[in-house]
Amino acid sequence: LDILERESADVSLVLVDLDEMSPGMSGWELMRQVRRRFGGLPLRRAPLLVVQSAREDPEAERFVRHLGAEAFLRKPTSPGQLLDTVGGLLTVEEERRGASAG
């Protein structure tokens, strides 16, 4: 979150691992904080959120989408699957930015 506060214009995407516990904050809380701090500000675009988890509970995927995740990947995630997902999202975001600028 500190990096996003300082460098928000340069951060396009955040990968959240729901199964790993970072010091002081879970992946769920990180998602909430990113959306709360950046989701409603017109001048500071919220980064795209990609979530990965080993959870097979369909409710988990629905909930992370409700929190604003653009993609939910079930572990184990292959490097190719991760790159395809991230690349596709960044391409769409770049096209959307180009359309809104022109």
State the main characteristics.
4 helices, 102 residues, 3-stranded parallel sheet, alpha/beta, 15% strand, 3 strands
Could you tell me the radius of gyration in angstroms? 14 Å
Give the count of helical stretches: 4
Proportion of residues in β-strands: 5-15%
Q: Sketch the major β-sheet.
A: 3 strands, parallel
- Please give the number of β-strands: 3
Given helix and strand content, the structural type is: alpha/beta
Summarize model confidence as the mean pLDDT: 81
Strand order of the largest sheet: 1-2-3
Quick one: overall form?
Answer: globular
Report the span from N to C terminus. Answer: 31 Å
Low-confidence stretches: none
Order of helices and strands: HEHEHEH
Helix content: 40-55%
Short characterization:
The protein has 102 residues and is of the alpha/beta class. It has helices at 2-7, 27-38, 58-66, 79-101, and strands at 13-17, 48-53, 71-74.
Description:
The structure is a single chain. The chain has helices spanning 2-7, 27-38, 58-66, 79-101, and strands at residues 13-17, 48-53, 71-74. With 102 residues, the protein is of the alpha/beta class. It has a 3-stranded parallel sheet, sandwiched between helices.
Give the secondary structure arrangement, pairings included.
Elements: H1 2-7, E1 13-17, H2 27-38, E2 48-53, H3 58-66, E3 71-74, H4 79-101
Parallel strand pairs: 1-2, 2-3
